[in-house]
Amino acid sequence: MRNFRLIDKYQLALWVFLVPFAVFGQGVRLGLSVSPQLSWMKSDMGIVESQGVKMGFNFGLQSDFFFAERYSFSTGLLINNTGGKLRYSDTLNFKTSDGQYKFDPGAEVDYKIQYIDVPLAFRMESNKIGYFVYYAQFGVTNHFRVGATADISAADGAVQQTLNGYGCKDEVGFFTMGYHIGSGINYYFSKNTAITVGFLYTNGFLDASRNTDTDFEDNLSVRSLMLKFGILF
Predict the structure, then answer these.
(1) Which has the higher per-residue pLDDT, 149 or 13?
(2) DSSP 129
(3) If we measure between CA atoms, which residue out of 3, 31, 37 comes closest to residue 201?
(4) For position 42, which CATH number holds?
(5) Sign of dihedral through CA atoms 178, 31, 39, 175?
(6) pLDDT in tens, 55-69
(7) I want to staple 43 with a disulfide (CB 3.0 to 4.6 A). Which of 20, 48, 54, 211 is the partner?
(8) Rg (CA), the chain
């Protein structure tokens, strides 16, 4: 993992956060959502291997700022419980809230990360067909870390301590970002109130890691596929 330049990420987050509010909207729609998801982590180095998907969820508020009848900027404030499991083929130096640990090659780390998410998306909707409206959206999601723990299993046969639930904020960056794309359907059971169901795929493109004490540097991304349920007002 590598030590990234946080100042660049903060500037990028501020820029994309302000863009939607620079547009004069024609209306605002609010909503609540809860989304079970499958998440995983991917490194750009072969010595760090992804070990499958992890079940998680996010929930929170959604706001759509319309600048035309069927087009809007969508944002929100969400709590995202995500993570992934990685296997390190090289010696692993890992810093926790209790100290520094060293693991032989073959150690597996199960990351459990909690982010506050601020998505920013362009959203397109169809005309109403009966009670239904179909939508598609694409944009970016800003992830701000609020918590991170890890379970670490030593390589098979190695006589080493196994760590469970140790804090690892020093290994996970405070801010990262990913692009997302999704689609779904809104069912209007009254004039302005609807139930919404959709899919959303997110792929991180900024390094999510932070580690200054390692013999190698990698770019670690967090990815997810979620099933989104919500209600719009």
Answers:
(1) 149
(2) B
(3) 37
(4) 2.40.160.20
(5) positive
(6) 999 999 999 999 999
(7) 48
(8) 20
Classify residue 156: in a domain, yes or no.
Answer: no
Domain assignment of residue 107, yes or no: no
End-to-end CA distance of the chain: 43
Strands 54-68 and 27-43: antiparallel
- Is there a domain that residue 43 lies in? yes
Which two three-digit tokens encode residue 98? Answer: 């209790």
E strand map for 132-193: 132-153, 163-167, 175-188
User: How many structural domains does the chain have?
Assistant: 1
Report which residue type is found at 81.
N
Pairwise CA distance, residues 19 & 13, whole Å: 10
87 assigned to some structural domain:
no
pLDDT at 6 over 70: no
For residue 46, the number of C-alpha atoms closer than 13 Å in the C-beta half-sphere is: 0
Phi, psi at residue 165, to the nearest 5°? 75, 25
Please give the pLDDT value at position 26.
Answer: 64
SS3 call for 127 = coil
Cβ-proximal residues to 49 (8 Å cutoff; 6+ apart), any chain: 43, 86, 87, 89
Residue 59 domain boundaries: 6-82+118-145+168-232
